């Protein structure tokens, strides 16, 4: 993740409009919170750097997560740069990889891997829940629109002339426009 540095230059002494650093020209954008774009929300749901739990070195969790996301086996010490097939081939030949010799080091590696896996599972579950909620909301909005359309048609039929409220308001507006 790259952070872009934006330099804010001080305004001229006589320009009191921008003296506080506030841009008054951007006020026409609207008030209140803007609806979030779904793709931006999905991208922001990924793990924050260093949020894979404690006892991991700086960047270690992020590096392990990249292997998990790409579906690859997390390499042990001395295995970086070697594919999983090459490692299995060397182990079948009788070579003992440096990470599998020491019980304690192996336990630490497994714990770190499990931290990363559980964090990624939580992220995936949150993503799934977000998508399900969005689907439920869109179905609910569709059902409500359908119900409103049926109600408007029922009201129009009960009035007797068969025109909906939208038709009446449009026709009155057109009549006033033509006068």
Automatic annotation (TrEMBL):
The molecular function terms of the Gene Ontology recorded here are: chromatin binding
Q: Which GO terms describe its biological process?
A: regulation of gene expression
Q: Which InterPro entries does this UniProt record tie to the protein?
A: NKAP, NKAP_C
Which PANTHER family does this chain map to? NF-KAPPA B ACTIVATING PROTEIN, NFKB ACTIVATING PROTEIN LIKE
Which residues does the UniProt record annotate as the domain NF-kappa-B-activating protein C-terminal?
51-149
Output the Gene Ontology cellular-component terms: nucleus
Listed Pfam families: Nkap_C
The entry sums up its family as follows:
Belongs to the NKAP family.
Q: What is this protein called?
A: NF-kappa-B-activating protein C-terminal domain-containing protein
- The superkingdom of the source organism is Eukaryota
């Amino acid at each position: 993740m790259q952070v872009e540095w934006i330099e804010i230059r001080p305004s001229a002494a006589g320009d009191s409009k921008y003296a506080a650093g506030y841009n008054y020209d951007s006020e026409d954008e609207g008030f209140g919170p803007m609806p979030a774009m779904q793709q931006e929300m999905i991208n922001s749901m990924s793990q924050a750097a260093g949020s894979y739990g404690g006892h991991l070195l700086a960047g270690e969790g992020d590096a392990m997560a990249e292997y998990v996301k790409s579906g690859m086996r997390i390499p042990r010490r001395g295995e970086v740069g070697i594919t999983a097939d090459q490692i299995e081939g060397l182990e079948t030949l009788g070579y003992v990889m440096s990470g599998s010799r020491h019980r304690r080091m192996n336990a630490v590696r497994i714990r770190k891997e499990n931290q990363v896996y559980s964090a990624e599972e939580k992220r995936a579950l949150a993503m799934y829940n977000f998508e399900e909620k969005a689907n439920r909301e869109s179905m609910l909005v569709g059902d409500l629109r359908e119900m409103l359309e049926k109600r408007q048609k029922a009201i129009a039929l009960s009035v007797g002339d068969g025109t909906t409220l939208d038709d009446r308001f449009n026709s009155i507006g057109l009549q006033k426009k033509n006068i």
